[in-house]
Amino acid sequence: MLKEFLDSANYSMNPYSIPMFITAVLVLLLGIYVLIQDNAIVNKSFFMLTFSAFIWQAGIGLMYLMNDTGTILIFYKLFTFLGVVVIAPGIYFLTIASLGILEEKKRFLIAGYVIAFAFYIGSLLTDSLVRGVDDHFWGYYLLYGPLSIPFLFFFCTFIIRSLQLDRIALKTMEPGIKRDQIKLLYISLYIATLGSIDFISCFPPLEVYPFGYLAVLAFVSIQAYSILRYRRASLSTIFAAMEDGIIVIDKNNRIQEANPSMEAVTGIKRQGLIGKNALDVLVPAFGRGGNSEGVAAAPLKRLMLKPTNAVNEDITFEDRGQHFNVTSSQILDRFGAKTGSILIFRDITERKKMEEELKRYQESLEELVAARTEQLRKSEEKYKALVDHALVGIGIHQNAQMVFANKQFASMLRFSEEEIIGLPILQLIHPDERELIMSRAYDRYSGKEVIDTYEMRMVRKDGSSMPAFISNATIEINGARATLITVVDTTETKLRKELEQVNQELERFTYSVSHDLRAPLRSIEGFSRALKEDYEDRLDREGQDYLQRIRAACQRMAAMIDAILQLSRIGRYEMHKEKVNLSAIAQDIASDLETTSPERKVEFSIAEAVFAAGDPMLLRMVLENLIGNAWKFTQEHELGRIEFGVMQQNSKRIYYVRDNGLGFDMKYATKIFDPFQRLDNAKAFSGSGIGLASVKRIIHRHGGEIWAESAVGKGSTFYFTLE
Questions:
Q1: What is the rounded average pLDDT of the residues 665-676?
Q2: Cβ distance 310 to 327 under 8 Å?
Q3: Domain of residue 448, CATH code
Q4: Would you say residue 232 has pLDDT above 50?
Q5: How many CB atoms lie within 10 A of CB 186?
């Protein structure tokens, strides 16, 4: 049989086979190229799909060249059908891999491949799937048998299921890079179904040249584009969002890319960095302001000129009092040749300050230990009292086990002093940090000079992580080496820093609103008042209307500024929690509303004795906004109904305000809590668009949640919880 396949007499030139060969080669090259770019599972599944498409198209092309029908039939069963039969499971494989649900759908995928190979074996052993060969104008082609119908059903099942999964993902995904990628994959699947045109050609008397290769080529091209483009887009987004300053330089030290954070590091705009020699740009930047090259610029030169990978240096901006750790890593091509480097600039100013503080404390502690060793041995109680009242955690480990811990050390890790003694030291260190810590300990015990003050994560008794600054010192206990460690919990420090930053931003915002916005507003309001008082009688009706609109706009703007100020104050307001009678507050608000508009017919239903723990003033603001909105949006009804109450759901108390008012479309259910967001059907009513945003902020400050349920014309219900 092999002799017949290799016999050139069995082949003749046929131009109709050329598109098939071209398609096969292009598809395979695309698969190889995508695989080279990344070894991810999506890329692997794409390569498997393209390889099966290559077998399919190349096999069809060879069949068109063959003259002997018997040889064609055997060749199809042995070779070509092997590519055809795994196409559909291959598409499904790529779909679930791109959606990240491979593990969830793995069993269905394996079943698909098993069924596919069952069809393949069946085609080899019987003629029920392919029963013969027919002569067409483009060459010999196949005649399918009765088993082709189940095979077509099998093929379509996996294509349709892939379409369903992509469609579900598109409905549930938030807009973004990943959704755009899935959208392209979804479109490509529709194109893939056009490849079945080859199947139509197997049923005489149809004489249609199988143009399915075009669909195959288009399908594979779109798939490759979506995998490569959006991977690059995703990496670009991550690169831009990095807080560390990052530059990419080529092997000639020219800057190819820089992220926005690099501007803050160097004080140079990104456009001023790209394309420039890194040494020419960065060395002067780090050498200005009194820096000498030996302090800052010289280490930077070493990083860029060093041939080794993953080296780092600490450099300093003396004029700004800033410290940076700069890491240099080589970029290698797939042959291992250097094509450039990546430099990462991390601000370690705060860490340096902590290190200096810990170093001073360490020195003092070591002096104290050295001076008092003999005394402490005689008086363990004095020793324990001294250490237990230290503001930092102090512990000693020997032979990889804790042998001592003061109260602060045990407390910050949520152990008792008795529980922590005897624990392996590695149990108290985060798994991701253990290898580094063991390496430092080995170097320290070997007498090497190591940095013994550093930041790391420890593990509390409950398994949670605790960021900390650690200082180590080697001591002797009973003639054997041990390690004295001091620990500072930096959790509160980091939180305080973030809070201070937020408060500063709020203060700046408040000043801007109160000063920069109110000043021109007062001018507009003053001049419009003067126009009204002195010149109104000289204006025609249209001019008077314009003047009235200006004054109304000023009033609205003033109200909006007040609302913005109120929203900013909520975040800074110091809460005082106590037991609050929400029913009484709701009743007061209802009475005030009825007094202001006695002509309105509104039926209030307020539950009695509803209490909650919270700040009375802030909770009054919540109910004023919610009940006030209900009053406003029920004014179109002859009889308005407003209800306040509470219900129990599991262990939570859920408070609610319900009305029969205007209502809204639920697709805006989250939008309404954003500042300045007003629905189209609500724009006829007065308001700043700040009220619900203020309510949300108050509820969150109380540790609760707020949400709404509504339908257009059928009223709304606002639910909220409190801690």
A1: 80
A2: yes
A3: 3.30.450.20
A4: yes
A5: 18
The C-alpha atoms of residue 73 and residue 143 are separated, in whole angstroms, by 10
- Phi–psi pair at 32, nearest 5 degrees: -65, -40
229 Cβ contact list (under 8 Å, min separation 6): 181
Helix, strand or coil, per DSSP, at residue 645: strand
Q: Answer yes or no: do 617 and 708 share one domain.
A: yes
**Two structure tokens written together for 429:** 């260190």
DSSP 8-class letter at 11: B
Question: Is 405 found in the same domain as 304?
Answer: no
Nearest to 374 by CA among 383, 366, 364: 383
CA distances, 36 to each of 10, 26, 215, 315 (Å):
38, 15, 24, 38
The better pLDDT of the pair 433, 200 is held by: 433
Confidence of residue 247 (pLDDT cuts 50, 70, 90): confident
Residue pair 622/598 in contact (Cβ under 8 Å)? The answer is: no
**Rounded-to-integer distance, Cα 524 and Cα 535, Å:** 16
> From CA 644, how far away is CA 623, in angstroms rounded?
9
Burial class (CB in 10 A: 0-12, 13-18, 19+), 609: exposed
CATH of the domain at 621: 3.30.565.10
Look at 269-273, 522-526, 545-549, 687-691 and tell me which has the smallest mean pLDDT: 687-691
Look up the pTM and report it.
0.39
Q: What's the full length of the chain, in residues?
A: 723
The residue assigned the tokens 């990240």 is 100
Give the dihedral sign, CA 400/401/407/409: positive
DSSP 558-599: HHHHHHHHHHHHHHH-----EEEEHHHHHHHHHHHHHHH-TT
Nearest to 573 by CA among 516, 506, 512, 623: 506
Q: How far apart are CA 413 and CA 677, in angstroms?
A: 45
pLDDT class of 644 with cuts at 50, 70, 90: very high
Are both 668 and 606 inside the same structural domain?
yes
Q: What is the pLDDT of residue 304?
A: 67
Instruction: Write the Ramachandran bin of 26: left for phi over 0, alpha for psi from -120 to 50, otherwise beta.
Output: alpha
Cα–Cα distance for residue pair 102/115, rounded to 1 Å: 19
Is 634 in contact with 640 (CB distance < 8 Å)?
yes
303 has which bridge partners? none
Distance in angstroms (rounded) separating the CA atoms of residues 703 and 713 = 32
Q: Regarding predicted confidence, which is higher, 338 or 481? A: 481
Query: How many domains would you assign to the chain?
Result: 5
Average pLDDT of the residues in 476-484: 84
CATH of the domain at 566: 1.10.287
Neighbours of 146 (CB within 10 A): 9
The residue to which tokens 């002096």 are assigned: 367
In whole angstroms, what is the distance from residue 91 CA to residue 113 CA? Answer: 11
Strands 602-606 and 640-649 turn out to be parallel
Distance CA 692, CA 671 (A): 10
- Residue 451 CB coordination number (10 Å): 11
Three-state DSSP class for residue 166: helix
| Rounded CA separation 330/274 (Å) | 19
Partnered with residue 142 across adjacent β-strands are 133
* 672 and 545 co-located in one domain: no
Q: 605 by DSSP, 3-state: which?
A: strand
Please name the residue that has the structure tokens 């340096």. Answer: 352
Residue with tokens 């008794």: 461
